[in-house]
């Protein structure tokens, strides 16, 4: 009995020792496994980490993930990417590690969730970036991006996705031992921007001692959709006192729930004495927007571009028709008296159709005037913006209280599609608006239908003219 009880006591001790050894070995295996799977040399800050999507499935055709010195960079000059197909970045690669970066090792991070736009459209998923110069420390690089597939949609949405896409560009080093490549926005005083009138604008940055920061807009182009809002923004952002994001943020209407931090992050960096302007034409017709804008900044300056509502409706129709098959404009706009297929000059105008409803300027403006004084709203004549852009811009500059800058020589008239002005940059290059989404050919609309629409809009236009104390030469019969 004594022998048996001693033996069982020893067994318990051995049992305990074996358990401790096994647990320790298990923990060691897990720890080694974790350390070896972690990508060596990757330095990704917490703030960047949150923008990472779920881990990418490994693709054996690519360089293994653990060899990637992948760093997502946040501060690409996004505004630049909207209207040209190049994006300037600054690299921080030590000279001795200098290497040529080509589309072989620079790839877009397709398919990952992005902070703003969700899924990347298939059409641009395979787009490649390219640095066009030998890499040097601090070199100002230009990544060329094929924007062709991005121009399918009208301004805004796809372009915005494209720029988000670029935010998630990854650099893949091809050697295990190379340094992390930090790609940051160029410092303000080295910034050379497309779209600005060159030297003048750079001087504004260089003379300032303050750090550039992302600032919320002080000016909104609130509408009207299809009245020339993009042209106004493009012309305005050439001014040295103006900064703007290229895409439409849609903050006060559909993205309000995302909060001010989200909104501010969309803004480009600017100096304290510059004004940030954004344009989202949907603001003008969204009932909840005026109060929201006022809540943010009761001193917000508002720009409203207007155009003959009949032509505007046709332009709106063209945009919709470019995306999906829809009935002819005449049938969409006017309900026939006797037959649904023969619209006539006596039929009911379909005022509920958004293309018609947006043109009821007085109705929409009334909502804004409940919240903002008329003095804070400047109305831009969309037709004059085409015929005489410098003079229209001069009035905007005066309203915004920024130095007079825009001159006739900044424009080349009737250059785009033989009708529209284009911007002349300081280097002499000419910048026109998006070829596919602007200046679409309008369908021929019968005179009787046009007359019916003009009759319909007449009282609304007059009310609008009374509200703003100014008239426009829109035909009323
Ligand atoms: N410089 C220049 N270049 C090209 N187009 C110009 C320009 N200035 C004004 N426009 C007119 O702008 C119309 C499009 O208006 P928006 O930019 O407000 O459209 S959008 O709401 O942003 O989709 C567009 O309408 P459509 O011609 O019907 O396409 C143009 O008439």
Automatic annotation (TrEMBL):
Record-annotated disulphide pairs: 422-432
Active site: residue positions: 226 (for sulfotransferase activity)
Superkingdom in the source lineage: Eukaryota
Transmembrane segments: 20-38
Annotated stretches, region: Disordered: 180-207
Xref: Pfam families: Sulfotransfer_1 (PF00685)
Chain residues that bind 3'-phosphoadenylyl sulfate: 226-230, 307, 315, 438-442
InterPro entries per the UniProt record, alphabetical: NST/OST (IPR037359), P-loop_NTPase (IPR027417), Sulfotransferase_dom (IPR000863)
Feature: compositional bias, Polar residues: 180-192
Keyword Disulfide bond: yes
Keywords from the UniProt entry: Disulfide bond, Glycoprotein, Membrane, Transferase, Transmembrane, Transmembrane helix
Every Sulfotransferase domain range: 217-415
GO MF, one annotated term: [heparan sulfate]-glucosamine 3-sulfotransferase activity
PANTHER family: HEPARAN SULFATE 3-O SULFOTRANSFERASE-B, ISOFORM A, HEPARAN SULFATE SULFOTRANSFERASE
Protein name: Sulfotransferase domain-containing protein
């Amino acid at each position: 009995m004594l022998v048996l009880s001693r033996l069982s006591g020893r067994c318990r001790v051995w049992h305990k020792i074996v358990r401790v050894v096994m647990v320790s070995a298990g923990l060691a295996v897990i720890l080694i496994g974790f350390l070896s799977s972690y990508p060596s040399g990757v330095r990704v800050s917490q703030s960047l980490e949150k923008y990472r999507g779920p881990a990418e499935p490994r693709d054996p055709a690519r360089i293994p993930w653990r060899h990637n010195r992948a760093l997502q960079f946040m501060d690409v000059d996004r505004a630049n990417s909207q209207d040209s197909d190049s994006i300037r970045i600054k690299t921080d690669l030590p000279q001795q590690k200098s290497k040529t970066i080509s589309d072989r090792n620079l790839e877009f991070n397709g398919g990952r969730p992005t902070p703003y736009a969700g899924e990347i459209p298939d059409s641009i998923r395979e787009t490649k970036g390219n640095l066009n110069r030998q890499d040097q420390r601090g070199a100002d690089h230009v990544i060329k991006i094929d924007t062709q597939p991005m121009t399918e949609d009208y301004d805004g949405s796809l372009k915005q996705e494209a720029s988000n896409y670029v935010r998630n560009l990854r650099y893949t080093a091809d050697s295990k031992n190379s340094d992390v490549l930090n790609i940051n926005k160029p410092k303000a005083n080295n910034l050379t921007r497309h779209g600005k009138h060159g030297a003048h604008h750079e001087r504004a940055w260089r003379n300032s001692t303050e750090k550039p920061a992302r600032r919320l807009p002080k000016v909104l182009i609130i509408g009207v959709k299809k009245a020339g809002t993009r042209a106004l923004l493009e012309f305005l952002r050439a001014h040295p006192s103006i900064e703007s994001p290229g895409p439409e943020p849609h903050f006060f209407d559909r993205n309000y729930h995302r909060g001010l931090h989200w909104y501010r992050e969309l803004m480009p960096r600017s100096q304290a004495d510059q004004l940030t302007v954004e344009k989202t034409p949907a603001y003008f017709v969204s009932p909840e927007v005026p109060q929201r804008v006022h809540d943010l900044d009761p001193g917000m300056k508002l720009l409203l571009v207007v155009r003959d509502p009949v032509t505007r409706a046709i332009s709106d129709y063209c945009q919709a028709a470019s995306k999906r098959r829809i009935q002819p404009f005449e049938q969409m706009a006017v309900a026939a008296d006797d037959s649904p297929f023969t619209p006539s000059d006596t039929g009911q105008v379909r005022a509920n159709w958004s293309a018609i409803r947006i043109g009821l300027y007085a109705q929409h403006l009334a909502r804004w005037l409940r919240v903002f004084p008329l003095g804070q709203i400047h109305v831009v004549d969309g037709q004059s913006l085409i015929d005489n852009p410098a003079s229209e811009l001069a009035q905007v500059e005066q309203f915004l209280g920024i130095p007079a800058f825009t001159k006739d020589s900044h424009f080349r008239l009737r250059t785009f599609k033989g009708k529209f002005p284009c911007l002349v940059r300081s280097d002499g290059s000419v910048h026109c608006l998006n070829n596919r989404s602007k200046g679409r050919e309008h369908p021929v609309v019968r005179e009787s239908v046009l007359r019916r629409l003009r009759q319909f809009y007449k009282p609304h236009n007059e009310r609008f003219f009374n509200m703003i104390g100014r008239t426009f030469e829109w035909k009323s019969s």
